[in-house]
Fold this protein.
Amino acid sequence: MSQPLLEVHHLERRFGGVRALADVHLSVEPHRITGLIGPNGAGKTTLFNCISGVVPPHGGRVRFAGHDITAWRPDRIARVGLVRTFQIARGFPRLSVYENLLLYGDRQAGEHAWRALTRSRAAQRREAELVDAAYAIAERLNLVRLLNEPASSLSGGQKKLLEIGRVLMARPRLILLDEPVAGVNPTLTREIARHLRALVDEGLTILLIEHHLDTIAQLCDHVAVLAEGKNLAEGSFAELAADERVQEAYMGRTG
């Protein structure tokens, strides 16, 4: 077994008197899709928030690619290659698809005032690289015909694709996906699933939250289950589907 790319140890998070996460552990192997499932209120999004730096944990550690990233700022975490999406697709609705993609490119020349003002050759070269990268990602995700459309005009599924595209512009090693097919029609759900599997086949690693169990069964190499902020079980989807604890806590017993 290879060294995990992401490791979560004894993670704790409280909101007032409520323990949203209680001694949670998680291990994500590289070049695989790992699923994170559980009933509403299980702590899945809170775990994503702690891993990605949106909120700090109250205890435990998070390690990514050899770095202890516990309580790092989100931008610092993104720079080492761990990038996330959100359950509700974000971005800038009035900007075009192209502009949304370009804004998420790493090493922007405009991040440094002097480079932006002087328009050095290096800055111009980087801008050209970002334009090429944005077009290539749009082409990959079947968004080219929508490049000049405002993000607000996209369908729910297209917004999910744009969210994935923005993440890819940051050149991640690990992507945290929060419900990538929620509210998406079946055709686009299948398309998104194909894109995700292709990305992993090319070397990326994905950890995803998803309530569509068919998508989890189709995509995930390994699945972890949370319930009431605690680890409940982990294994293949087939193993978990046969686990009575999972049936009781999440899927509902049928007999």
